[in-house]
Amino acid sequence: MVELDEYPGKKGMLHISEISSKWVKNIRDFIKEGQKWVAKVISVDKDKGHISLSIKRVNQSAKREKQKEWNNEKKAEKWLEMICEELGVDKSKMYDVIGFELQKKFGTMYAAFEVAYKEGKKELIEQGIPEEWAEKIEEFAKAQIKEREVEIRRILEIRCLDGNGMEIIKEAILNNFPKNAEIKYMAAPKYYFKVTGKDYKLCEKILEEFVNKVNDHLSKHKGYCKVIGEV
Fold first, then answer.
1. How far apart are CA 93 and CA 84, in angstroms?
2. CATH superfamily of this structure's domain 2-57
3. Positive or negative CA dihedral for 16, 60, 6, 31?
4. What is the mean pLDDT of residues 22-33?
5. Under 8 Å between Cβ of 217 and 175
6. 164 neighbors 225 (Cβ within 8 angstroms)
7. Which of residues 29 and 138 earns the better pLDDT score?
8. Into which CATH architecture does domain 150-230 fall?
9. CA-CA-CA-CA torsion for 64, 70, 75, 77, nearest 10 degrees?
10. I need a labelling partner for 190 at 20 to 30 A (CA). Which of 2, 129, 202, 211 fits?
11. Could you read off the pLDDT of 201-231 as tens digits, one per residue?
């Protein structure tokens, strides 16, 4: 059984077959007590209260995104505790006073700080956040948040069976190549593709659109483009 940090009081079952795609002889060779892992919910039995989890079914992009989200939420929690001290609020009551409300209005506490960073306190006040809290959240957001770019790297398989296949592939890539991206020829038919953006979801969307557009072009020439791995 494992504890679900995002759902206090809830526990899930992680079967040995869902730990790794490799053969697991000893579970302690892969995970140890006290470690934190990103897991995927694969089934829920409401009647029995059973939650089944999987680690091996979590892809690297989803894992990085969830870890980033978790780390950011812990940052936001720390910032709110500091604001509590400045406003004379008992830190143990932080969630009841403001934390749960921010999660309800913005999805996560960190998202509220992001809104304050980009839009200012006015947006928080319009969402019903008290002005004194909105002012402090904006102040901390401006001081603490440092925007940085992320990247995803994939291996693409690109083929074209027409006689001048390489020229057709080159044309398909150049005509649809996105900004903030890089592609390198590895060895037929593999290509290294990297895209940089503000978050993983945006990068995944750029990759998906690029692959689809190249596919549309190549499908007319007995060819295709698909993702075959991560780097």
1. 9
2. Nucleic acid-binding proteins (2.40.50.140)
3. positive
4. 79
5. yes
6. no
7. 138
8. 2-Layer Sandwich (3.30)
9. 170
10. 202
11. 889 999 999 999 999 999 999 999 999 998 8
